[in-house]
Design brief:
This protein is of the alpha/beta class. Helix content is about 20%, strand content about 30%.
């Protein structure tokens, strides 16, 4: 999936594309007690299809909720307390988002996906090029919310309506190519 961005100069065409991907209830909830507070196979399939083959970056709590590395992706955890992986190539741990992004760039990844949780999303929002938000068609109770973002800084590229959710794809306006 390519986006018409990365466009102020030639060098920008080859930089790492940072994409936030999240499933969010109508009232902004993304989690409750360390779990996703709904069961939606179609949204999980969308997540898998979109992120497969690319690095995924997550915080420690998201990692603990997932409990196992996701296949066909470089799993990167941001944590100051976790120790290195026991099994080679299972996952990588960095102490900051900046260090994890530097790893992705130095390994020539074209894009990476930031998959949560709340604190990682807050840290990543100012750096993100694209937002892919699956807006669930219901409200739920929860203790983790997707951070507010200034919609004026983003242009909606697409909106795909499905039975249980709508996928909204936004691009940061400053990254749009001028035609």
């Amino acid at each position: 999936m390519g986006y018409p961005l990365l466009g102020k100069n030639f060098k920008d065409q080859f930089r790492l594309e940072k994409i936030i991907i999240a499933a969010v209830s109508k009232n902004g909830v993304i989690g409750n007690e360390g779990k996703i507070p709904w069961d939606c196979k179609a949204e999980l399939q969308h997540f898998k299809k979109t992120t497969s083959g690319f690095p995924i970056i997550m915080g420690r709590k998201t990692w603990e909720a997932i409990a196992t590395p996701l296949k066909n992706r470089v799993n990167i955890i941001i944590s100051r307390s976790l120790k290195s992986s026991k099994k080679k190539n299972d996952y990588l741990i960095f102490s900051s988002l900046k260090k994890s992004l530097a790893y992705c760039e130095s390994n020539n990844h074209k894009k990476c996906f930031i998959i949560g949780g709340t604190q990682i999303y807050k840290t990543a929002l100012p750096l993100a090029d694209v937002l892919i938000i699956s807006e669930m068609k219901f409200e739920v109770e929860g203790d983790a919310k997707f951070p507010e973002f200034k919609k004026a800084e983003w242009k909606m590229l697409s909106s795909e309506e499905l039975s249980e959710f709508t996928i909204h794809t936004y691009i940061r306006k400053e990254n749009l190519q001028e035609c």
